[in-house]
Amino acid sequence: MPKDQNRARGLKAAIHNPNVSDAAKAKDKAILEQEYGGDGSSSEGEKMPQNVKRGLKAAMHNPNVTDYGKKQARDKLAGMGEQPEEPVD
Q: Where are the stretches annotated Disordered (predicted)?
């Protein structure tokens, strides 16, 4: 991972850390806006669909997941246009 992404992540963490002073938070927020074109909050919460599908498929094969959880994973995969595998259990 490139160093600038690590730096941006560290600045975001400092902004949300309750142990960091308000002055330091303001400075870090200014750096994020100046060097990275914003506070970076727009990319937070976005999920990559391929990773979501991969996680749902993994849940379907995980023996520690309940039958109800596996059914939910299958339903979500179907909702994403993916043909879910039938359970082997």
A: 1-89
Written as one string, the DSSP assignment of 43-55 is TTT---HHHHHHH
Residue 16, Cβ density class (10 Å: 0-12 exposed, 13-18 middle, ≥19 buried): exposed
What percentage of the chain's residues is helix, strand, coil (to nearest 5)?
Answer: 60, 0, 40
Residue 58 token pair: 């993994």
> What are the residue boundaries of the structural domains of the chain, listed by start?
2-36, 44-80
Model pTM greater than 0.90? Answer: no
pLDDT in tens, 3-62: 778 888 899 999 999 999 999 999 999 988 888 776 555 454 567 888 899 999 999 999
Instruction: Name the phi and psi angles at 80, rounded to 5.
Output: -90, 5
